[in-house]
Amino acid sequence: MTKKFFTITQNFVRSIITLVFMALGIFQDNLYYIVIGAIILGISEISFSAYNKKITKQTKGTEL
């Protein structure tokens, strides 16, 4: 339970940071902030999908 909560919290914090970088990039007309935000978003999406695959593998064996 705590590991799942930690992962959800970690992804939530990453998305907040991404939104901050995107907003900075839009308001300051700086492309670097937008690129950094997109990279953070990509990393969080990859890690979240990997976590979901791991959970499905763990539960798949018990359902059958």
From TrEMBL:
It comes from the Bacteria. The chain crosses the membrane at residues 12-27, 33-51. The keyword Membrane applies. Keywords: Membrane, Transmembrane, Transmembrane helix. This is Uncharacterized protein. It comes from Paraliobacillus quinghaiensis. The lineage of its organism: Bacteria, Bacillati, Bacillota, Bacilli, Bacillales.
